[in-house]
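Dear colleague,

Thank you for sharing your sequence with our group. We've completed the structure prediction you requested, and as agreed, I am returning the results in plain text so they can be pasted directly into your records. Please verify that the sequence below matches your submission; if there's any discrepancy, let me know and we will rerun it promptly.
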Amino acid sequence: MNSWKAFLKRKDIEISLRRYGIDALGAMAQGLFCSLLIGTIINTIGTQFHIGVLTRTVAVIAEHEYTVGGLATAMSGPAMAVAIGSALHCPPLVLFSLITVGFASNALGGAGGPLAVLFVAIIASEVGKAVSKETRVDILVTPLVTIGVGVGLSALWAPALGAAAMKLGSLIMWATELQPFLMGILVSVLVGMALTLPISSAAICAALGLTGLAGGAAVAGCCAQMIGFAVMSFSENGVGGLVSQGIGTSMLQMGNIVRNPRIWIPPTVASAITGPLATCFFHLRMDGAAVSSGMGTCGLVGQIGVYSGWVQDIADGTKAAITAFDWTGLILISFILPAVLTPLICYPLRKAGWIKEGDMKL
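Please find the predicted structure tokens below.
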């Protein structure tokens, strides 16, 4: 047993919830951002501003035409796998081999590919690390083992994992369409809290393929946390804190939440208000990339995702035009309501002494 533990330590293989559920999941979201999300943004910019170089076909592969953004989107599987491998501290030969593993697991996982990539890439990474530099022909053994395990598991697991993720995501989206008020609260609160926790709300939304009304509720919850904490803590953190939390991440407050969990009440209650407003009144939908549903105002990715969805809906003929009501709903849900509601909810908590000056100092 001691020799096994020593081996795992020497190989930097740490079997823990933090390593897999936080580090790997968060890295996967970054891989998605640098491929699928950036590709979507490039395509939207090219289409809306009529930039020929961004809308022109630059490659034809297997009779499929790709734009610049299309190429970035097509690389989402490899990008996720390499990002996960980087988070798990994979040596170079393992890391580069994960390109193939990510492509296989994402392709075989279908619409639920991100979840398949997460599971398969983690196992392939750790097995690859275990055999790395253990033989005289490492340059052959490590890639063969990493790719062999990854592609083999992709063939066995990816279709089932992808289908399970999409069924769960579809169930959430169906329930939100059926009960927009209750599910608007539930999705908004849970995804918003996931964004503030040291896990990746974006990766969760991507893995579940969370779009439509449920995606809109997720955007509302994330915005309530980010804008809420940014405005609520302005007296303590100033403009720097406003920007770093408002368009960065509310995860910066996690240490303060551990010290005083009550500071989490105002933005969470605000998300319980804006979520059903998004689903029931403004009918805010995320018809863009699912990963955008869990990004909130981070780099304005959530808002860009909603907008790109509008553009795609118009192109598909399911939406006639972007209306003033659409813009009003997006701006109110994303910025104005969280900025107004959270300080109002926080005020009586400050009066009661539950929240004190300095509790949210970064």
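Summary note from our side: The longest strand covers residues 59-61.

Kind regards,
the structure core
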